[in-house]
Amino acid sequence: MGKVTVLDHPLIKHKLTYIRDKNTGSKEFRELVSELAMLMAYEVTRDLELEEIEIETPIKKMMSPVISGKKLGIVPILRAGLGMVEGMLALLPAAKVGHVGLYRDPETLQAVEYYCKMPQDISERKLIVVDPMLATGVSAIAAINSVKQRGGTNIKLVCLVSVQEGIDAVQEAHPDVDIYVASIDEKLNDHAYIEPGLGDAGDRLFGTK
Ligand code: URA
């Protein structure tokens, strides 16, 4: 079963409070989501492999570690996932970015892929699927399906606000995927919104409400 990590850091808690606040406007909301994504990227990449290279300080030669091994890919789920890309790229500038777009079929309530463009060498990359909200898990599961269908095998899911049932659903569908969240909230309401949550992350990012 994939590991679930709740990032329990004062900076993350602080920024999360302000993205939850309904009085936070889109500009500040975007900045905070970006900063949170950067902080999450720090933890999500904790297991990256290192190799020693020789460098020369002004004083002497030394062996010193640099990132090695598989390259990274960031996969935002459209559209709210876009809000997390810039912050992740700030720490991981060499990562490639794939996109998955999904809509919910009103009859079957299933997520249907309408867009998917992945890095060509997807199977050689460590992939980080990002979406600020993990609610029912339907979108995350479908997005991970899309990534796997195109050859992705090494996948992590990073969300800001989640609920336990969404985590459970992803773990059941994709037991190989580790999940990182900043908070596990109380519950989903009847409209599949997270309570207390932060409302509609896409609308708040892009000012469409
Ligand atoms: N998506 C959102 O943007 N907000 C929620 O609360 C749940 C899903």
From TrEMBL:
Pathway: Pyrimidine metabolism; UMP biosynthesis via salvage pathway; UMP from uracil: step 1/1. Allosterically activated by GTP. 5-phospho-alpha-D-ribose 1-diphosphate binds at residues 79, 104, 131-139, 200. Its cofactor is Mg(2+). Keywords: Allosteric enzyme, Glycosyltransferase, GTP-binding, Magnesium, Nucleotide-binding, Transferase. Belongs to the UPRTase family. Catalyzes the conversion of uracil and 5-phospho-alpha-D-ribose 1-diphosphate (PRPP) to UMP and diphosphate. This is Uracil phosphoribosyltransferase. The gene is upp.
